[in-house]
Design goal:
By secondary structure, the chain is an alpha+beta fold. The protein has a single domain (2-72), classed as Lrp/AsnC effector binding domain/regulation of amino acid metabolism (RAM) domain (Alpha-Beta Plaits), CATH 3.30.70. The chain is 29% helix and 32% strand. Strands 2-3-1-4 form a four-stranded antiparallel sheet, with helices on one face. The longest helix has 11 residues, at 12-22. The termini are close together.
Length: 75
Amino acid sequence: MIIQIRLHKQIERALEVFEATMQRYPEVMECNRMSRDADHLTRVVLRDVSSLERLIVDELYKIPGVTNVRSRFTL
């Protein structure tokens, strides 16, 4: 699954906090800083859609500075 994440501001300290937090999640395989539509493109491995929902609602939206999260399934 792919998750696009947008941050409120792309200042260095906010990016450092976000990236350090993402390293704590074992389901995160990659977290790449991007340009344009998403600040980060993240690849995660999860069991099911319920796990994805929990990750987004209970974890990602609680990271300071996260303003938008969009998920996509790979086929």
